[in-house]
Structure prediction request, 474 residues.
Amino acid sequence: MGLDVRIKKRLKDLELNVMFSCEDGRLLAIVGPSGAGKTTIIRILAGLQKPDQGLIICKEEIWASTKDKIHVPARKRGIGYVFQEFTLFPHLSVYKNVAFAAKDGQRVDDLLRLFDIWHIRDSKPHKISGGERQRCAICQALARSPKVLLLDEPFSALDALTRRKLREMVKTLKNELHIPIIHVTHDIREALFLADDILPVVRGRVESKWMLQFMLMSREVGRCLGHGIGAGNNEEEEIELSIATNATKESMR
Amino acid sequence: MDLVALSLSIKLAVVSTIVLIIIAAPLSYSLVFHRIPGRSFVEALINLPIVLPPTVLGFYLLVAMGPKGGIGSAWEGVFGSPLLFTFTGIVIASIIYSLPFAVAPMKASFARMEPRLVENAQVLGLSPVAIFFRVILPNSLAGIAASAILVFLHTIGEFGVILMVGGSIPGKTKVASIAIYEAVEALRYQDAWLMSITLVPVCFVFLLMVNRLTPEVRHGA
Prediction:
């Protein structure tokens, strides 16, 4: 069960070549710098792009197989996809956006209440804040009970406080949803906070060494500048980061 | 003043606008969102009436819609009546003549749409037809309104093509622009003045109606 992925794709200036699995109820964070091919991976999973070579199997159903020339279109994959921004339908209210593809009206009501946007259900997307818009986008993705949830840097355009709140919400949600969740981010702290597994991707390939180097470097830079990862202004975060750094070192031995 | 010609002009403009919006919307959608083989050829063909002199286009249509032409003979075969010098004939000619004015604003409006909206609709399980009706159209009403205005006003002002295909049969094909021309030719300047002046408020009222709709769409009210 879960999601099994093996994909290769030639991009403009790099060759994407990754292989990973994500079990039901687990959150896999795909982390890496800009231009690493993270978004391409998630778009291929959604069916919005095709791999040059590869196999994608979700809950024993083949979504893509270049060998057998299978490509299930995006609309038939039953995916929940939260984009970075700009994906709520501007002509519809918050309620109608969430209910857009939902099969169950009660689920729409429940999600709007759970994500605390019930009070703005009649507002149009341009009348609400960025955080509310992203909560609405998450509800929209979840309303049709997806087989897999894909999150493509959904918090990157938000302010720090809103980002923190939404991370908490996704963490709570993760424990309640029994589906694979793939979360693309360039923020290692976000990945450490949310993920059960982390897939570091650099220039289209899985690079564990980069992850460790990045974490060590971020800690040093953070200490020097007095902010950021490892700045020592949050003891809990510092401990969490130390554990993760050591775990990464261990896994590379 | 020839009120029959004036009302025929408005009837022709309304019918042409409705038919053209129905034709141009999916055509523009395909041109923007689908990979069409020979797209440049198709677009050049659509835009041909902009650069061709109306009399040239009218002449080609006259030949094609005549009893020996492809369209005319097919029409007679199916409906048993000729197409030339009929109201239906001038509607078809108007549609061909005004097609680029309907397609251009719609295409621009569809192309301006955030591509992720369409991708989100795909991921949410919508078919291409459902995406067109539930996402593209409601978010392109301003572009569609602009198309409607242009087509309507362009049809009201048509002369050369209509004269070639429809002639000047009162109550059937004699529209206001032809009636004005005939009035001037017969030195009936008062009639020409009256009809010319009447066209201004008619066009203005239609512009006003569509303009009143457009801001509502833009502000999502």
Summary: Residues 3-33 of chain B form the longest helix (31 residues). Residues 217-221 of chain B have pLDDT under 50 and may be disordered.
